[in-house]
Structures are given as structure tokens and as C-alpha cells.
Design goal:
Helix content is 23%, strand content 33%. It has 3 helices and 6 strands; from the N terminus they run E-E-E-H-H-E-E-E-H. The N terminus is likely disordered.
């Protein structure tokens, strides 16, 4: 790619005239743009500190099964309109496919003070149940 242009945290790479422009962005940039406010559940007051979140991540990542990887890099390229969009990020824990009957699994760790019982209604709302 000959030229590089950065606009609103997106890297736009321009190649030859017949190539679609390539837009690169991270999951973090996409989330920061699309989820500017709000919370999943905010009925318990302030959430955990950044240090508590880091410690929870480290503890769970150290306990991962053999063969699983922490901070696993993921990337996908998707054509959207006249662009090639490359979305990348890291999964907290990646469990590779161990056999043909078990799919790969991605674990995303979130730290909260919210009791697990409060999540049942949240999942019902997203799965179409009432």
C-alpha cells in the first residue's frame, strides 16, 4: 500500500485504483465509538477498580487448561460496501478445537460486583425470552 491516512482512529490504506480501500480498526476502537455510555447492569453502585479487573484476568488466565492461550490475537477481513474492513482484537482466553465434535471457544472476562443470579434476566432479554 502506497499511502496511509488516519481519520477518526481508523487507518485507511489506499492501494491501486482497482483495489477497495482497506479500513483497519480494533475491537476497542469500534466499542469506544458505538458504546459511548451505559452499562449492562448498574444496580450495585461503583464497579471494580482497574487493578481488581487486572488481577481477576491474571488469575483466570493462569488457571486456563493446557493448550489454551491467553490474550489470543484475532483478525477478520470483511467486505462492506466499497471497502475491505479489517477488524482485530484479542480474546482473553482461546480454547482451540480439540476434536471434530468440540468447537473452539473464546472466553471474554468481565469483572463485576453483580451477583450471578442477576444475569439470568439479562440473558432472557437478549435471547428473546420474557
Amino acid at each position: 500500500m502506497s499511502d496511509s491516512k488516519v481519520e477518526a482512529c481508523l487507518a485507511i490504506e489506499v492501494g491501486s485504483a482497482e483495489e477497495a480501500p482497506l479500513l483497519r480498526l480494533s475491537v476497542g476502537e469500534l466499542v469506544a465509538f458505538s458504546c459511548r455510555s451505559g452499562d449492562l447492569i448498574n444496580d450495585t453502585g461503583p464497579g471494580p477498580s482497574a487493578l481488581e479487573g487486572i488481577r481477576a484476568h491474571q488469575k483466570l488466565q493462569k488457571q486456563r487448561p493446557k493448550g489454551s492461550e491467553a490474550e489470543y490475537f484475532l483478525q477478520v477481513q470483511v467486505p462492506i460496501e466499497d471497502y475491505k474492513v479489517v477488524l482485530s482484537g484479542r480474546a482473553d482466553i482461546f480454547h482451540p478445537q480439540t476434536d471434530l465434535h468440540t468447537p473452539a471457544q473464546i472466553d471474554e472476562i468481565k469483572t463485576t460486583y453483580c451477583p450471578p443470579r442477576n444475569y439470568l434476566s439479562l440473558f432472557d432479554n437478549y435471547s428473546g425470552h420474557s
